[in-house]
Amino acid sequence: MGMKVRRDALHCFVATTARRFGLASRATINNRTGEPVLVMARVRDEDGQAHAGPVEVGSVDAGDDLHVDLGALVGNGGSGLPGSHSGGAAEAREHVVTFSLIPQRFLEGPETVDIEPAQMFRQILAQDHYLEHYDPGTGFSSGVLYQTPPLNRIGQPVPSSFLMQAPKAFVTGGRRTVFQFLHYSPDPDYAQEATLSCRALAADGGVLAAWHERFPPHALRFVDVGAVLQAHGHAPADVTDQNGFVYVEAACDHAGFVPLTWNLFPAKGTFDLEHSLPPVYYGPVLSGARKQRMVEAVCDAVAAAASAPA
Amino acid sequence: MALERLFRSVLFSEPSPVPGRLRRAVQRMAPFGAFFHEPTVQVYLQEPGVDTYLCVNDFFDVLVPDGTQGATVHVRLHGAAGQLLVEQSFPLQRRGSLSLSTRDLLRGVADADTIGLASLQMLPRTGHPRQQEAFRSMGGVMCQFYTYYLDEKSGSVAMIHPQTSVVPRQRRPPAPRFASCQSVQRHGVSAIRLLQANPTPVAVEATYGLVDADRPGEDRLAETRIRVAPMGAGVAEFDVGTLPAAVTRVRVVADSLPSGNAKPLLMRVYNDGRFSMSHA
Question: How close is the nearest chain B Cα to the Cα of A180, in Å?
Fold first, then answer.
């Protein structure tokens, strides 16, 4: 059975800036869908407020790509795009760019199209897109390939949910791990707030910290693991395993998120970016109601730990 | 292990080699280990100053709401030529995590290489038949872990998820042509290194190339061919300084991959010795 989807919500790729780390950003939008697309972009600030767009970025033939500098797109203070709202202070803030890849065949018709879910996912899954951050002076860069699923769509029958888990926080020896969470929706009118349940666990499974992060719709937040541990009374070096790692989980039973993991070594000017693996990577049936039950269990555990006496 | 593989081939092959009713009977008879896919693999690096950490966590406890009693992690390290160098098992406490330094694991091993293949398999410890049933119904559990590469000298860090798992029988030809979805800006880059795992039981030869990302239809700018031993790893390297000056952005291509998603790791080596890395 088909569903009605805005043509600019069919196939999206969401990319973020990284000014807080002193980096510039660029994206490679690949088109392996087999048909030509028009790429549009909307820009929001880190609190989810509309900043600029939608604006046309370029057309991409099948098999081709589009290379986009995010700074040029967002501009200093957002002045690079028509309809932008902010002044010079925006340079210190992050921005979120949602690219829409609209098949050319949909451009002449209505803004909302009828499409089978399988057809929509074929568009999304045909390729990864590439987000890269870099030091303009030295050229040092690191990036990550990923896809942006249609999360938090208005009117979807079952709410999105989210789970991130893996032991990838490195918080000693001058290195730090920062998790980036984006409360994303391809629908500009999405207006739901969300609460992310987080916990850090020691190597023996003991809870080091349990806390909540609150997100307005479309908002972007960064969580520095070392800072969280310190805020919960831990010196990171005292609670990591023998190699400097600690394990972090994040879950939400009422909204989806796009997470990225930053590993940084500020003294050396190096950094790395990676995405996490959703439950279906662990078991193909771990979606829908089954995933929801898993996520609710983690959220309940975090709530219990967060409210327990210190 | 051979028995588990036999059951896996019936349970998880699409299309199934047996009819539905028989498949359900097989599911009831299959040993517990058959419901877990082949070990997941990733390249490890042991070059001077570089260590690789295999980072695992008891994800089973999240997958099964009733929880588990922890897990056992089975690790194998193969050298570049595929030779088995290390085989060890480690317990994981419930909700626990573990980071394993390949340098520590290879300490004292005489013929350790600078590159090799790590394979990991995890099995949960369950106390109740209901817990086992939950894993049996997951459609084949895949052990995921992260590798964390760290160069103490340059401070370079990279964290990468695995792309593929052990292929016990190479029934099909290697995967067809591959073109990376990422492009590499050459500013500051001295070399591009591709670290290729071969998780299959046969040696593979593959040709890798660089194309101009802004002129993809033109001839390859550079090409190199390597041979990777079964269960081994190999490196293909390109000197970026030899590329035409007009080329600012390149893309990695390959004539084939050892198996379906066995993409190489792409390392950007910068002029000052730092590197960044991700899967290609």
Answer: 15
